[in-house]
Design goal:
single chain; mainly beta; Lipocalin
Length: 119
């Protein structure tokens, strides 16, 4: 019985683990209200380490500092900071979700195929 419970706990932990470091083709979805459908589009998702990641959509970059329970998000356009906030986050397999608590905007980043190295 103990082995079965331990196995279920480990399986749940693995399912919530972040993808391995690297560059991924991704989809970023943003919901501005609970009632409206999310707006989704192609993005580049770079997981630099367990604590650092970046999401790029055109010339806008979301710099993510992933702490144990919170993510610090800095939104940049070129060298100009557009926004900054901290939020609780969750990994669901290859999907990272977090919500800007002040604006109640929900973000979902889905890492898809690993990006090919640039030549």
């Amino acid at each position: 019985m103990r082995a079965a419970v331990l196995g279920l706990l480990l399986a749940g932990a693995a399912a919530s683990a972040a993808p391995a470091p690297g560059r991924y083709a991704a989809t970023l979805c943003v919901s501005t209200t609970a009632a409206s459908p999310p707006s989704c589009g192609a993005a580049e998702f770079e997981i630099r380490s367990r604590a650092r990641a970046r999401v790029r959509v055109a010339d806008v970059v979301y710099r993510l500092h992933l702490r144990p329970a919170q993510v610090d998000v800095m939104t940049m356009q070129g060298f100009m900071e557009i926004d900054e906030f901290s939020a609780l986050y969750e990994w669901h397999g290859n999907v990272l979700t977090f919500t800007d608590p002040d604006k109640n905007v929900r973000y979902e980043v889905k890492a898809e195929a690993k990006a090919r190295a640039k030549r």
